[in-house]
Amino acid sequence: MGVFEGSTHINHKMIDLNTIFEFSRTNCVAICAFLVPANLLLTLQTLILTWLRRPKSQVLTAVLVACIPAVLIIFHVFTWLMIGVVMAPTFILLCLGSICLGINFWAIFHVWAIAKQFKIQLRENLT
Q1: Nearest in space to 104 (alpha carbons), one of 68, 57, 73
Q2: How high is the pLDDT of residue 1?
Q3: Which helix (H) or strand (E) holds 96?
Q4: Residue of higher predicted confidence among 87 and 124
Q5: Could you say which DSSP state residue 4 is in?
Q6: Mean pLDDT, to the nearest integer, of 28-56?
Q7: How far is Cα 33 from Cα 69, in angstroms, rounded to an integer?
Q8: How far is CA 14 from CA 10, 18, 19, 22, 97, in A?
Q9: Which of 4-8, 35-39, 84-88, 89-93 has the lowest mean pLDDT?
Q10: Rg (CA), the chain
Q11: Angle between helices 28-51 and 56-82 (to 10 degrees)
């Protein structure tokens, strides 16, 4: 008899994705009521910090925090798409999350470009 044959042991530590997906769909209004403003406000914060040329570490922290609701709203929309709900709100929310992610990734590379440009200008001024 093999190791796994006849075993009635069930691993209770596994995550049941169906339960998570059902929770996401059941509480859609509350989830979206939180995630939509969070996406907009946190991405706006990233843009403002980038525009003000705040330190790189501060912008990167803001980006990390702003990416969390963006990824969550994309996963939330995918739970609807997986069961075949294809409506305007699903695409609008998917675009919102994607645009917020895009802006935050842009801010990362923009901060690095500004830092690189600042180092080049600093070197030129010192010589």
Answers
A1: 68
A2: 47
A3: helix 88-126
A4: 87
A5: S
A6: 94
A7: 12
A8: 9, 12, 12, 17, 28
A9: 4-8
A10: 22
A11: 150
Residue 97, token pair as written in the block: 């999350």
DSSP character string of 23-73: HHHHTHHHHHHHHHHHHHHHHHHHHHHHHTT--HHHHHHHHHHHHHHHHHH
Contact 107, 57 (CB under 8 A): no
Q: Is the dihedral of CA 29, 66, 68, 93 positive or negative?
A: positive
Q: What pLDDT, on the 0 to 100 scale, is given for residue 61?
A: 96
* pTM greater than 0.85 (yes/no): no
Q: Report the Cα–Cα distance between both ends of the chain, in Å, rounded.
A: 79
Query: At residue 30, what is the residue type?
Result: A
